[in-house]
């Protein structure tokens, strides 16, 4: 199969899902051609810096402003119209690339390229089937656009919400967000902790804030590292060098044994060694935690989408909230003191995990491509007959 995956670099989740899907397609059909395109960067690198750079800066410097924009775009037609005009301009810049590659199917992991393809299909200059893979745990109105053949979502709550918004139920597939096939590899907890210089017999907590190392990680780490809780800590700072240096500095006075890590490709290895994950509720991080069946304690959700992710997790007893982080020591102490609470959360994680997601998505793409080719063959035969 020939698959064009359209993504953007707004955080790590959208691209990680794109590369995970590519790996599954190549695993099940090795002679496939899969092209991942960083859409806005391809169309115009300067525009990418303005749009994506502005987005990343806003969520870092003024997350409350981003939250307000998120809510406005759910209901403000003027903002939606402005977005549509910009995406129409970019859509026609993208069209030649799509035509040159001539994919059997297009997969979008972000609403920006999805809207571009929707515009091209609505104007009947493109007829390729399009599948949208939502990488969070609740939908936004930006995803609801015409000419989308199928939606892939992470949970059944999303199905009901999208049906209410006018999406046909048969077009929504609750088969989950794919994570890299390597994430399926099992690791020995004791060996991992020994490798890190930690005690295999001690409760272990991991703190992380996605690839950007965002959120109140240093404040939470400082509180926990100076507490009297019988735990040990693993902190992952991602690409945030400033945060890494700050935690190393705080570690000098810590009462609790800690291992500080920067960017790593072994997140699954460390998750499997932990009893509790402290994180902001990014879609891919949540999915990875569910795969590893690790209970979650949440902090610093980005207003808007991540707040919705948090609501989903709390509703289904998959996580607890640390609120503003000021009382995190007491919350963590209570969790550690009652293992049955952690066990219940762990059991719920297993129920919501979708380990076959990659294979299920591949099968869905295959069936859509097959159906499309059958339609074209039938149409061609009818023309000849007439």
UniProtKB/TrEMBL annotation:
Signal peptide: none annotated. It comes from the Bacteria. InterPro entries: Diacylglyc_glucosyltr_N (IPR009695), Glyco_trans_28_C (IPR007235), Glycosyltransf_28_UgtP (IPR050519). Its main location: membrane. Residues 14-179 form the Diacylglycerol glucosyltransferase N-terminal domain. Residues 204-299 form the Glycosyl transferase family 28 C-terminal domain. Keywords: Glycosyltransferase, Transferase. Pfam families: Glyco_tran_28_C, MGDG_synth. Coiled coil: none annotated. It is found in: Membrane. The keyword Chaperone does not apply. CDD domains: GT28_Beta-DGS-like. Belongs to the glycosyltransferase 28 family. This is MGDG synthase family glycosyltransferase. It comes from Clostridium neuense. The lineage of its organism: Bacteria, Bacillati, Bacillota, Clostridia, Eubacteriales.
């Amino acid at each position: 199969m020939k698959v064009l995956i359209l993504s953007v670099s707004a955080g790590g989740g959208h691209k990680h899902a794109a590369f995970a899907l590519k790996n599954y397609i190549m695993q099940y059909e090795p002679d496939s051609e899969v092209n991942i395109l960083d859409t806005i960067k391809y169309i115009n690198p300067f525009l990418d810096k303005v749009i994506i750079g502005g987005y990343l800066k806003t969520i870092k410097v003024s997350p409350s402003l981003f939250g307000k924009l998120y809510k406005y775009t759910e209901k403000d037609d003027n903002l939606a119209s402005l977005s549509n005009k910009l995406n129409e301009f970019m859509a026609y810049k993208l069209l030649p690339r799509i035509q040159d590659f001539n994919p059997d199917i297009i997969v979008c992991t972000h609403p920006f390229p999805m809207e571009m393809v929707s515009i091209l299909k609505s104007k009947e200059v493109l007829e390729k089937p399009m599948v949208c893979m939502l990488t969070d745990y609740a939908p936004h109105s930006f995803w609801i656009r015409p000419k989308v053949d199928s939606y892939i979502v992470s949970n059944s709550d999303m199905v009901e919400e999208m049906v209410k918004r006018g999406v046909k139920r048969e077009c929504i597939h609750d088969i989950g967000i794919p994570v890299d096939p390597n994430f399926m590899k099992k690791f020995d907890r004791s060996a991992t902790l020994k490798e890190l210089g930690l005690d295999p017999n001690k409760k272990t907590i991991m703190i992380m804030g996605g690839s950007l190392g965002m959120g109140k990680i240093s404040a939470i780490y400082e509180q926990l590292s100076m507490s009297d809780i019988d735990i040990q800590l693993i902190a992952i700072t991602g690409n945030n060098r400033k945060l890494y240096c700050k935690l190393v500095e705080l570690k000098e006075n810590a009462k609790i044994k800690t291992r500080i890590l920067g960017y790593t490709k072994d997140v699954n290895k460390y998750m499997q060694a932990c009893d509790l994950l402290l994180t902001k509720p990014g879609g891919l991080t949540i999915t990875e935690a569910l795969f590893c069946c690790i209970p979650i304690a949440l902090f610093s959700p980005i207003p808007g989408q991540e707040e919705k992710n948090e609501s989903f997790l709390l509703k289904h007893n998959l996580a607890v909230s640390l609120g503003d982080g000021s009382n995190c020591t007491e919350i963590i102490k209570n969790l550690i003191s009652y293992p049955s609470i952690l066990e219940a959360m762990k059991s719920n994680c297993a129920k919501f995990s979708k380990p076959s997601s990659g294979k299920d998505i591949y099968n869905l793409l295959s069936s859509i491509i097959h159906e499309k080719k059958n339609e074209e063959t039938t149409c061609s035969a009818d023309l000849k007959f007439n």
